[in-house]
Amino acid sequence: MKKCLSRCISGLRHILPAAAAVILSMAASEATSASAEYRLDQGDVIELSLAGPLDVRQRSTIDANGELTITLLGTVKAAGLQLSDLRTTLQKLLPEKTFRKRGPDGHENLAVLNPDEISVEVVEYRPLYVTGDVSKPGQQVFRPGMTVLQAVALAGGYEVVRLKMENPFLQMADLQLDYQASWLEIARLQARALRIVAERDGETKVDFRLVLGMPLPNSLLVEITSLEADQLRGSLMDYEKEKGSYERELQLTDRRINALISLQQEQERSVKDQEKELGRLHGLADKALLTAPRMVDAQRLLSLSAERVFQTAAELERSKKDRETLVRQFQKMLEQRSIKFHSDLQDAKIRLANARARVQGIGEKLLYTGIVKSQMTAGTPPKITIVRKDEQGARSVDANESSELRPGDVVTVALQVGIVGSPPAEQPVASSTVAVPQHVAATKPAENGR
Question: Is the confidence at residue 24, as pLDDT, over 80?
Answer without folding.
Answer: no
